[in-house]
């Protein structure tokens, strides 16, 4: 299994917000549930500052060591989070997908939250995520439907 460490977003510093914004911009529409449109950077920055998750981490490959034995951290390859309700989200940058990072991040999250009910909301078009979570024993429990209404809501009452 590819080795990664999860570093809390707030410990990485200001560059984390930029990395997370770039990562969000990489999402393909068919795998996206939470965003209809790409937020502005200032909207994204405000979202990050609101600390929206119970835990939010950058997925970083294990550090390399220089000749003096000092750890040299690599750049993040993705991010993951868990909500207060136990919902997990994982996204790996396109350049690093299919290299085992999501699998290792998910395994780490499961270990961190042993004994807790965990959930994953997966868009119907995201076959890779469905297979990943099923491979860890997650079971399909529901379908969520959405009705987008525009204009006067009383018309349908």
- Low-confidence spans: none
CATH architecture descriptor name: 3-Layer(aba) Sandwich
> Which CATH class is shown?
Alpha Beta
Q: How many β-strands, per DSSP?
A: 6
Structurally, how many domains make up the residues? 1
Strand-residue fraction? Answer: 15-25%
Question: Which strands sit side by side, in order, in the main sheet?
Answer: 1-2-5-6
Oligomer: single chain
Largest sheet report: 4 strands, antiparallel
Output the keywords:
single chain, 157 residues, alpha+beta, Aminopeptidase, 4-stranded antiparallel sheet, 5 helices, 29% helix, globular
Nutshell version of this structure?
With 157 residues, this protein is α+β, with helices and mostly antiparallel strands. The protein contains 5 helices and 6 strands. The chain has one domain: Aminopeptidase (3-Layer(aba) Sandwich), CATH 3.40.630.
Walk me through the structure:
- With 157 residues, the chain is an alpha+beta fold.
- It has one domain: Aminopeptidase, CATH 3.40.630.
- 29% of the residues lie in helices and 17% in strands.
- It is built from five helices and six strands, in the order βαααβββββαα.
- The strands form two sheets. Strands 1-2-5-6 form a four-stranded antiparallel β-sheet, sandwiched between helices. A two-stranded antiparallel sheet has the order 3-4.
- A hairpin with a 5-residue loop joins strand 5 and strand 6.
Write the layout of secondary structure elements.
Elements: E1 4-8, H1 9-12, H2 15-25, H3 41-49, E2 55-61, E3 64-65, E4 71-72, E5 78-82, E6 88-92, H4 101-112, H5 127-135
């Amino acid at each position: 299994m590819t080795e990664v460490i999860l570093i809390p977003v707030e410990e990485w510093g200001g560059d984390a917000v930029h990395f997370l914004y770039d990562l969000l911009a990489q999402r393909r529409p068919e795998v996206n549930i939470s965003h209809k449109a790409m937020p502005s950077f200032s909207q994204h920055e405000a979202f990050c500052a609101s600390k929206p998750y119970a835990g939010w981490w950058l997925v970083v490959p294990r550090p390399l060591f220089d000749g003096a034995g000092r750890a040299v951290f690599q750049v993040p390859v993705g991010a993951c989070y868990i909500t207060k309700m136990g919902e997990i989200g994982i996204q790996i940058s396109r350049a690093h997908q299919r290299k085992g990072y999501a699998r290792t991040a998910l395994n780490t999250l499961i270990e961190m939250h042993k004994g807790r009910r965990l959930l994953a909301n997966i868009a119907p078009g995201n076959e890779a995520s469905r297979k990943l979570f099923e491979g860890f024993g997650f079971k399909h429990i529901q379908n969520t439907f959405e009705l987008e209404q525009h204009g006067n809501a009383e018309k349908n009452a």
